[in-house]
Amino acid sequence: MNGQDSELLERVLTAHGGRERWREFTRVDTSIVTGGLLWGMKGLTQDSEPRRMTVWLHEQRASVIPFGAPNQRTAYVPSRIAIETTDGQLRAERLDPRASFQDHGETTVWDPLHRAYFNGYALWNYLTMPFLFTLPGVKVEEVAPWDEGGEQWRRLRVHFPFPGGVATHCPLQDFYFGEDFLLRRHDYQVDVSGALPAAQYVHDYIEAQGLRMPGKRRAYRRDANNRAIEEQLLVAIDISELRYS
C-alpha cells in the first residue's frame, strides 16, 4: 500500500508534528556530533567536534560544515557529491557517486568523497523521517509487531524506489514505533558497505517549531536473530540546536 492508505503511518506523521506543519518549512539546520566504529572500519578518523548540518526538506539536498578544513563544506545531491570552500571554490567532486561503492565490503577504505556522500544521504534520510515515507514511489505496509524491552512496537516496512528514487541505505527497511507512535528503532542494511546489517535505536526526542525529531541515534550491527549486538556500535549521532526555516 502507499502512504495514503496506512492508518499507522498517519498516526506516526501526526505524532511527529503532522503533514501540514512539515509543509510550512523548506530546510532544517542542526548541530551534529558523530562517533562509532564504522569510521575506523573505513580507514577514517572521526573526532567529537560538532558540525553544522543543513538538509532541504522537500528535495534530496544536504550540506555539512566544516568538512576536512574549517572553510570547507560538502554539497550533496544523489547524482553528485562535492567538497567546496565557503566562498564557492570547488575542491573535489564525483558524479554518480553511488557507483563508486560497487564491490565495497565492510572494511573497504573510503576517500573523503565516499564519506561525504554517505553523510549526505544518511543525514538527509534521518532528518526527513518519517515524512519522506510520503514521497512519490515510496510504499509502506504494516507488518507483525515486535516485542522488545517489555514493550510491543508496531512496525512499518518501507519500500524505497532506488535506484532512481530516494537515495537511502537499501530499498527495504523496517521502522518500529511505540505506543506514542514515535520511532524507537530502524532496521536496514548499509549497501554502500557490503550490505552491513544494522539496527538503529533512537531516543531523546527534540521538539522544534511544532515538529519532533530524535536527538540521539545509535546504530548497532544486527545479528541473524534480528537483535542488536551492543558491543558493536557502528554509528552514534547526537543532534541538537534543531531549527526549521
Write up this protein:
- The chain is mainly β.
- The chain has one domain (3-244): Lipoprotein localisation LolA/LolB/LppX (outer membrane lipoprotein receptor (LolB), chain A).
- Helices cover 14% and strands 46% of the residues.
- The chain is built from 4 helices and 13 strands.
- It has helices spanning 7-15, 19-23, 38-41, 112-128, and strands at 27-35, 51-56, 61-65, 72-77, 80-85, 90-95, 139-148, 151-159, 172-177, 183-190, 196-208, 211-222, 228-244.
- The strands form 2 sheets. A 10-stranded antiparallel beta sheet has the order 3-2-1-13-12-11-10-9-8-7, covered by helices on one side.
- Strand 12 and strand 13 (228-244) form a beta hairpin.
- It is globular, with a radius of gyration of 17 Å.
- The model has no long low-confidence stretch (mean pLDDT 96).
**CATH topology heading:** outer membrane lipoprotein receptor (LolB), chain A
Order of helices and strands: HHEHEEEEEHEEEEEEE
Task: State the secondary-structure class.
Answer: mainly beta
Indicate how many domains the architecture comprises. 1
Order of strands side by side in the largest beta sheet? 3-2-1-13-12-11-10-9-8-7
